[in-house]
């Protein structure tokens, strides 16, 4: 990674923290610190709500009131806003999202939100959430800051450190340690100091240094204390609640706003930690996961091509075929798999058990325009977490930017046509072309064998290197395609069953090989060596080198990565609105300009 050049056109900040640390409030408050100079200005203005949330607050008479605030993208006239929050709460623990603040000169600050650590459903969900986090950050070129949000009085940091630091550094280059900062929330009660968490934090960091020789700095530059209660106060005031102790909240606003600007000032001066194109375990896992589904499509496409060629062979071999008819069949058919880019994204159901959508590309909500909000909260088209169109769970839906398309072509052999025109024996012509068709079939079978062997290596790699319990997505999607083929077979008299039989044979052999691998892994005698990260990237390149197939796979990979951008929510900020922010953005602008002349490097 040494000497790699990183363009500094964006500031990317990753937010990590335990459940309940206040990440949502932190992000909402951040937006309003950008917009307003003071709490008084915010009360007079229009509050910015980027993440819908619900909380309970007590007024001066000690009466409790539930405050519900809904972001613009989550707002839906057909649903009660409390139902909206319930849906949001369920999905937000599973998904990452990004909040993009557009500064002057088209430069941006991006806060990357992640699921909370310490999921009440157990450690397995923490593992899944962390894997989602790795997938999310994999789309960005670099990270400028990694903010770990902590409560000021937390004597137990084991789980947080496992996933915030130990797991993170095991998947990123160790230089990421220089981009880590600690943000303490709810600190008014500890006089805007880290509280009892600080000594525990120092012990944990010393332990990491002792075990892995990685020193993570803990000093004023890397410690930031907030209390974003002033945002909740602001939301409550907008709901009509009255308070006599506004000064307390005004102080919280002032201190937290200043701390936000100090945090930004530090992060924009940090050397960016480069993420893109690193040969890492995370990247290898992600590319395998992306390629699984298109590889099933390729497998079906090969079966379809073989079926068409075999059918053509039989037609040519007929004894009663005329010369004219023979001439019309002297071609090599080619069904090419391509992607068709959509004019605008569609939201589709990806559940393999969906009964309404016969094909994964059929849209549940083609007219729905708030795609960013859907990808972030999956709301507005859901009732209690279920799709209004197909009935499947919200988590089974995704945005797609493309659809698969098959293009059919015929490649005629001019040499054979010349032979016929010279009145050569038709039997010779027939055999010559049959040989060429068989040659094409043999080539397709070689490609299929290559793909099948690579898929098995991919599966073994995931089985031995996954963070979570292994879930065989390749087998799942292959079963789905087989089920669709069976429906087509039952509904169409002219359906060529060789396609279905070929897919079923592929699944049978795949299951047998996976079973054998599992047995070897479990026995451990002798230990089964996992494919290396380098092996995986070499195998991926082999796939990319396959004629036609390789281009399709590369196109799919590119478009799949783009879909993650639809989890971003954008927010315009102006340095003219906020005096403190103006100073920070002036520094940011200088850094951007200097980056044109001086490469930013990761050591």
UniProtKB/TrEMBL annotation:
InterPro entries: P-loop_NTPase (IPR027417), Sigma_54_int_dom_ATP-bd_1 (IPR025662)
Coiled coil (residue ranges): 295-329
Keyword Coiled coil: yes
Keyword Coiled coil listed: yes
UniProt keyword terms in alphabetical order: Coiled coil
Name the record gives this protein: Uncharacterized protein
Organism: Gigaspora rosea
């Amino acid at each position: 990674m040494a000497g790699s050049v990183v363009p500094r056109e964006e500031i990317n900040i990753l937010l990590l923290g335990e459940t309940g640390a206040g990440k949502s409030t932190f992000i909402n408050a951040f937006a309003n610190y950008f917009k307003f100079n003071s709490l008084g200005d915010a009360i007079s203005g229009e509050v910015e709500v980027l993440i819908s949330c619900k909380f309970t607050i007590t007024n001066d008479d000690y009466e409790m009131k539930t405050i519900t605030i809904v972001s613009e993208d989550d707002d839906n006239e057909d649903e009660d806003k409390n139902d909206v929050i319930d849906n949001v709460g369920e999905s937000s623990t599973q998904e990452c999202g990004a909040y993009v603040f557009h500064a002057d000169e088209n430069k941006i600050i991006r806060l990357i939100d992640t699921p909370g650590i310490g999921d009440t459903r157990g450690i397995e969900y923490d593992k899944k959430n962390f894997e989602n986090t790795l997938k999310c950050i994999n789309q960005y070129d670099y990270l400028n800051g990694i903010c770990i949000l902590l409560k000021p009085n937390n004597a137990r940091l084991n789980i947080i450190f496992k996933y915030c630091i130990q797991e993170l550094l095991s998947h990123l280059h160790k230089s990421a340690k220089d981009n880590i900062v600690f943000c303490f929330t709810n600190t008014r009660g500890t006089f805007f100091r880290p509280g009892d968490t600080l000594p525990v934090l120092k012990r944990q960091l010393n332990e990491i240094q002792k075990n892995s020789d990685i020193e993570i700095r803990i000093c004023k530059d890397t410690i930031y204390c907030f209390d974003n209660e002033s945002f909740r106060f602001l939301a409550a005031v907008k709901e009509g609640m009255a308070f006599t102790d506004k000064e307390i909240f005004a102080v919280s606003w002032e201190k937290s706003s200043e701390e936000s600007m100090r945090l930004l000032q530090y992060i924009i001066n940090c050397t960016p930690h480069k993420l893109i194109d690193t040969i890492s375990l995370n990247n290898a896992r992600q590319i395998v996961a992306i390629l699984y589904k298109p590889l099933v499509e390729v497998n079906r496409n090969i079966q379809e091509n073989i079926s068409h060629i075999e059918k053509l062979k039989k037609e040519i071999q007929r004894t009663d075929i005329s010369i004219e008819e023979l001439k019309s069949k002297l071609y090599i058919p080619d069904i090419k798999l391509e992607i068709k880019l959509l004019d605008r994204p569609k939201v589709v159901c990806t559940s393999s058990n969906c009964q309404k959508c016969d094909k994964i590309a059929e849209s549940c909500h083609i007219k729905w325009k708030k795609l960013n909000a859907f990808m972030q909260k999956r709301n507005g088209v859901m009732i209690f977490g279920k799709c209004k169109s197909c009935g499947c769970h919200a988590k089974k839906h995704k945005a797609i930017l493309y659809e698969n398309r098959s293009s059919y072509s015929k490649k005629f052999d001019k040499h054979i046509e010349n032979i016929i025109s010279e009145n050569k024996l038709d039997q010779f012509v027939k055999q010559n072309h049959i040989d060429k068709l068989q040659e094409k079939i043999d080539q397709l079978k070689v490609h299929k064998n290559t793909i099948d062997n690579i898929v098995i290596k991919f599966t073994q790699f995931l089985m031995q290197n996954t963070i979570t319990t292994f879930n065989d997505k390749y087998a799942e999607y292959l079963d789905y395609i087989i089920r669709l083929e069976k429906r087509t077979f039952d509904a169409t008299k002219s359906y060529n069953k060789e396609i279905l039989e070929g897919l079923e044979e592929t699944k049978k052999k795949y299951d047998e090989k996976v079973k054998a691998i599992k047995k070897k892994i479990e026995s451990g005698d002798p230990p089964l060596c996992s494919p290396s990260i380098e092996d995986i990237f070499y195998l991926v390149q082999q796939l990319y080198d396959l004629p036609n197939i390789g281009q399709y796979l590369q196109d799919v990979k590119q478009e799949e990565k783009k879909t993650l951008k639809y989890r971003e929510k954008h927010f315009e900020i102006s340095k003219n609105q906020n005096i403190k922010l103006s100073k920070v953005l002036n520094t940011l602008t200088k850094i951007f300009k200097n980056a044109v002349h001086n490469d930013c490097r990761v050591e």
